[in-house]
Amino acid sequence: MTRKCYLTAKLPDGYVKTIGPTSAPFTHYWRIVAILANGKTEVFWGHTKSLSEARGKRAAAAEASKQRQWRNHAFEIAELERSDEPPA
After folding, report:
1. How far is residue 59's CA from residue 11's CA, in Å, rounded to a whole number?
2. Are 56 and 49 within 8 A, CB to CB?
3. Beta strands at 28-35 and 72-79: parallel, antiparallel or unpaired
4. What pLDDT sits at residue 87?
């Protein structure tokens, strides 16, 4: 049986996302902050099993931006930190 842990991503703007408990082998968290055509902001996120997989989401974000006519978007990747205990 695989041991469960908590995975935490810390983004440069101070946002912290924790996933878990999980036994999934995720290594990276990605986030898209999109400014929609109507000026509202929407956030999309996910986690991947490798940095290269996370980087591959960048092209998908650019394509989504064109298809959905977003005004702008930011794409970010953060490495996940593993811990046995949930963050305080």
Report:
1. 20
2. no
3. antiparallel
4. 81
pTM score, two decimals? 0.87
Identify the pLDDT of residue 1.
54
Look at residues 77, 70, 36, 71 and name the one whose alpha carbon lies nearest to residue 53. Answer: 77
The amino acid at 78:
A
Give the pLDDT mean for 64-69.
94
Cα separation, 17 vs 68, in Å, equals 26
The average pLDDT across 67-83 equals 96
Phi-psi region of 49 (alpha: psi -120 to 50; beta: other; left: phi over 0): alpha
Which stretch of DSSP H or E encloses residue 76? strand 72-79
- DSSP structure string for 2-61: PPPEEEEEE-TTS-EEEEEEE-----EEEEEEEE-TTS-EEEEEEEESSHHHHHHHHHHH
